[in-house]
Design goal:
By secondary structure, the protein is mainly alpha-helical. It has one domain: Four Helix Bundle (Hemerythrin (Met), subunit A) (Up-down Bundle), CATH 1.20.120. The chain has five helices and no strands. Helix 2 packs antiparallel against helix 3 (52-68), helix 3 (52-68) runs antiparallel to helix 4 (82-111) and helix 4 (82-111) packs antiparallel against helix 5. The longest helix is centred in the C-terminal third of the chain and has 30 residues, at 82-111. It binds protoporphyrin IX containing FE. Protoporphyrin IX containing FE (HEM) binds at residues 28-29, 32-33, 35-36, 39, 74-75, 92, 95-96, 99, 125, 128-129, 132-133, 136-137.
């Protein structure tokens, strides 16, 4: 009985401390690379209705990599003092959440064949990339 209880406790502690890494991504870099590849491919074909199914698959990949990037911390966070780091990570998670919403809006626009809206969401995603990198990526 005691052993069972200890086992349950150990499992719960592990569950709390193990980050839930989705989509098989191993690092923030790999998430970003997946996003980059999917984004470029989507840009080439989103306006072609004949490729709708494949575009939706690419969007699913982009979304899953965006979601997975919330499970990692940008390298920049390592060098910060704790107070600054907490705010930095909160802002980072908010930016990723916003990006996921934009990808979901793009998905809906593709599903409904609203090409003009697809363009709008692709531009917004690109703007998130630019601002996300200026705020959260090391400049060297
Ligand atoms: C909210 C939006 C975004 C944020 C906050 C963000 C953040 C970051 C950060 C912090 C890094 C540096 C990696 C590290 O510190 O370990 C990075 C790298 C990178 N990101 Fe993003 N990013 C965003 C959106 C995007 C998007 C939409 C794309 C592509 C379409 C993208 C493509 C890349 C690429 C190619 C790299 C370089 C990866 C490498 O070093 O190989 N990012 N991003």
């Amino acid at each position: 009985m005691k052993t069972k209880l200890l086992l349950c406790l150990a499992t719960a502690i592990l569950a709390i401390h193990t980050p839930t890494v989705r989509a098989g991504e191993k690092s923030l870099e790999s998430c970003m690379e997946t996003m980059n590849k999917s984004y470029k491919a989507i840009k080439k074909q989103y306006a072609d209705p004949a490729q709708k199914a494949s575009t939706l698959e690419l969007i699913a990949k982009l979304k899953s990599a965006a979601e997975a990037s919330a499970d990692f911390k940008p390298e920049m966070a390592a060098e910060m003092d704790p107070e600054k780091r907490t705010k930095f990570l909160t802002d980072y998670h908010a930016a990723i959440q916003e990006l996921v919403k934009q990808v979901e809006s793009l998905e809906k626009a593709v599903q409904e064949g609203r090409t003009k809206d697809c363009e709008k969401w692709l531009t917004e995603i690109n703007e998130s990339k630019i601002s996300g990198h200026s705020e959260f990526m090391e400049k060297n």
